[in-house]
Design a protein that fits this description.
Blueprint (H helix, E strand, L loop, with lengths): L1 H10 L9 E7 L2 E7 L4 E3 L3 E3 L5 H7 L6 E7 L10 E7 L6 E5 L2 E5 L5 H18 L13 H4 L11
Parallel strand pairs: 4-8
Antiparallel strand pairs: 1-2, 2-3, 5-6, 7-8
Amino acid sequence: MVGWLRKTTCENGVEYIQNKVVDISLEGNHVRNITLQSGEEITTSTLVNAAGIRAYSFSRLEGKDLPIEARRRYTYIFSVTDAWNGHYRLNTFDHNAIIGPLNEVSFLRGLSGHGSQQALACGRCVAELAVHGEYQTLDLSEIRYERIAENRPPTEQAVI
């Protein structure tokens, strides 16, 4: 699925950069540029942090400390010859994703292993925030960052 997604997005104009962000330059709350491990600097006024399990480390470059930590999850506890396990980046506040703008950095963090299910829809919402300044397709304001600062976890109506 990831291979298909990468191929399709490239066919539609996405350019993937294989590198690591090592610094984010801010002027006040405004992003000015990012520095990559290769030494290349990219000037931008819009930055989206969708770094998956590395989102916490990335947010530290932004000067933010969000309640997301790594937790290893196991599919099988008993002896098997083949198994699958995952690496979750878990939001310790309420176990939900954290989405939205904070200052001038848009982000999507803490999908807790559900990224392949939710990333496309959430990515669209982050893009809408970056381009239009508001959600247009889905209203994800219940999982915005402010709920953490206000100590107000969302009430789940249906848990599947």
